[in-house]
Amino acid sequence: MLTPLRRKRQKRQMGRPGQTGTKRSARAALALCSAGALLLTAAGCGTDDGEADSGSPPPVTVKLPSLKGKHLEVTAVWTGTEQKNFTKVLKEFEKRTGATVSFVPSGDDMAGFVGSKMAGGQPPDVALVGQVGVLREFAQKGWAKPVNAATKAELSKNFSKGWQELGAYKGKQYGVYFKVSNKSLIWYNTSAFEYAGAREAKTWKDFLAQAQLISDSGTDPVSVGGADGWTLTDWFENVYLSQAGPEKYDLLAQHKIKWTDPSVTRALRTLAELWGTKGLLAGGRSGALQTAFPDSVVKAFANAAQPDAAMVFEGDFAAANVSDAGAKLGSEAKVFPFPKVGETAPVVTGGDVAVALKDSEASQALLTFLASPDAAHIWAQAGGFISANKKLSLSVYPNEPLRKIAKAVIDAGDNFRFDMSDQAPASFGGKPAQGEWKALQDFLKNPKDVEGIQRQLERDAAKAYGN
Amino acid sequence: MSTATAGGAAAPGRVAPAQDKNKKRKSITGTRLWVAGIFLLPALVLLGALVVYPIGYSVYRSLFDASGDGFVGLDNYREMFSDDATMTAIKNNIVWVIVAPSVATALGLIFAVLTERVRWGTAFKLVVFMPMAISMLAAGIIFRLVYEADPDRGVANAIWVSVHDTFKESPPFPGAHPRPNAGLTESSNGSFTTDATAKAGTPVSLPLVAAKRDDVSGAQDAKAAKPEAGKVTGTVWFDFTKGDRGQHNVLDKGEKALADIKIEAVKDGKVVATTTSRADGTYTLPAKADGAELRLPAWNFGQPYNGVDWLGPSLVTPAIIGSYVWIWAGFAMVLIAAGLAGVPRELLEAARMDGANEWQVFRRVTVPLLAPVLSVVVVTLMINVLKIFDLVYIIAPQTSQDEANVLALQLYQSSFGTDVNQGLGSAIAVFLLVFVAPVMFFNIRRIRRERRR
């Protein structure tokens, strides 16, 4: 039903001189952007597509075919600043190949979005999937198409083995990890720390002590975006990886040990030391549950001199929200690694993997482009972006914290653990109001009920993994 | 509306049989069957392809497993009824189907009857009908903002909180408490009591921490209370210096006073005296307080009133129904107003002449005459409500989506995505169809009855 309509719209756009077309699409983008902002209460939509870019032009290291007249539809969960920056990458692709690329935000539920499009027979050409579990399911169902030789060559040249394997399923390469993240970071407001006399914590115990000190000083210490279930799974994963160790982490990720395992009990009890203590969460537990992730960052950095909260835990991508909130990275906002709960500090990573859903020359060319340092360069210099691309020069990153985080990711080589919930089937680890997201929200609501939450997690996991 | 055309179409049908008794292969209207068939064909094809086939396929699909290959019989239905989420959805659907149409119709009736009597009725109707022009999706986004919990953002709570705060004083220092070693013990209700008893003539210091910086920043520096003979005095202050450089539980220079804190003197569990701290943090209790324990009631540190958690687990369904009524009350009003225009004035006049008061006229004359219209409105809304999806999908936040669940949403959640079960989804769809069937049956019977009249 949709096809004739879309074709008509396309034709009309092509029939007119370029100027009108871009104006229209810009206006549409703005409308979409503000609608998205309303829905997600995410502040900071870009005002324009940023022609006056101060950054250096990207290097040209990869050869792309000419794709004049071809059209690509790309989908990702990104909105706001992230969407704006990704659009810059797509613009460069358009410039080099002559193809037209449209970006469709998928909303939080990527699996549901692509699933319904698949059912309707009109999938987007390329999707950037945030969960490795979803990538594997796409591959298993035959929705995802394997990459071609050019992309493979680009991957083996630029990425470590660990990252390549994460994009593969049953020996075939499907995905390109375009954007990765280091999810073991605590962002803090320097003036709140200074006022309280707090310091960067190395261990969990010290972390709690510093939090108490900050609480005494009159600032809520830790801001948690509990309205978004995924921030809570990231909390759990860092504690668990550090406390139970990587071997158990891998076992739990594959559901080879149960969620009722004593190691999970210990991790949840540890987490409850923070979540269950009065005065340590910004706005209390109910306040945390009503705070979406972008708002949790705003709480800590919108009023840099006297913030509502001192610390926010999340990956490097929080940098974009920090700048949106108006705080200066490196001076007003600083970052320290997640404190070690057990022997070593955790390094949990995540990433958005680009995967072709239609096997066409154009979608393959876009994957090749995204695997090259050229594409990474464009977003990296805009900020809020980390690449696992070894060939990308670290000097491209706009500030010291980002450079440090990127270096840590590349230095980790293959010694990192991928976000556990993103490895799980979507109904357990990747969907709002379901599975792990929902269970940990219930846990934040009532941190005393460790056993009950474990049973709930195990029940949902058993159903989702089918074992 | 549909009743008028139905009645018209039925009229020739009744006359026809007598004419065509002797002619075979001709239908009641005198046309050949194949001609009638050709004319019916487009409608039949469309109905078959768009209605009958999908229903049939859904029933068929609901008997198979997630992959669509294995026959599982009624297992999907069994799973559906053993799943908590679906049971909540069924329960919520029942609440929806009872509450939403009746409230919308009642409001519509009130608006319709009242607007008939005012001069600017049409303008008023226009305003009430306006929400119908907004898509459900947009209305959902609007109400998501309206119901936002933070009173600075959600208009519902902004109103609620400002009304509440005009009648009740809000606590001065939310979240504040003494340090663990400050000589005060917290009781189960959140109040703090001194371990030692107060002596007249010896100031009792009450150091607190964790008062919010915003609440403290404008305060005066705290003053050490002077001992007064025969009276209990002391200071309540914020025991924190920038950088934590001050001594704990000691009044350092520059530490801020905590004003307006309520202090009670308690002897054997009974309050003997109360006071409130002054702007410089000092307080004075009368001689009665000598030998009493000092208690800081929990009220001092309570959270400021933050309004109602509209989208929390308990209120989320009523809140979403509220937004639905906002949209559809206008629809009910317009239909009822049209019905009202057809009510013969003489009847109302006659009732008034017979001495009925306005309420009796409304209750005994207007409403019975409007009954057919009212049932059309209620039934239409019921069918509409059973398939409710968009408002719930958009308004309910992640944390309470389970509690707000409805069948159509559950259907979507279990059918689309990656590891999903379209068999289960089809089973829910079939159940939804069965759910709508009685309402449909009622509707069809009603139309038939109208036709016969």
Automatic annotation (TrEMBL), chain A:
Compositional bias per record (Basic residues), positions renumbered to this chain: 1-14
Taxonomic superkingdom: Bacteria
Keywords of this entry: Transport
Entry keyword annotation includes Ribonucleoprotein: no
Region (Disordered) residue spans: 1-25
Pfam families: SBP_bac_8 (PF13416)
Keyword Transport: yes
Family: Belongs to the bacterial solute-binding protein 1 family.
Entry-linked PANTHER family: ARABINOSE-BINDING PROTEIN-RELATED (PTHR43649), OSMOPROTECTIVE COMPOUNDS-BINDING PROTEIN GGTB (PTHR43649:SF29)
Name the record gives this protein: Putative sugar ABC transporter solute-binding protein
Organism: Streptomyces bingchenggensis (strain BCW-1)
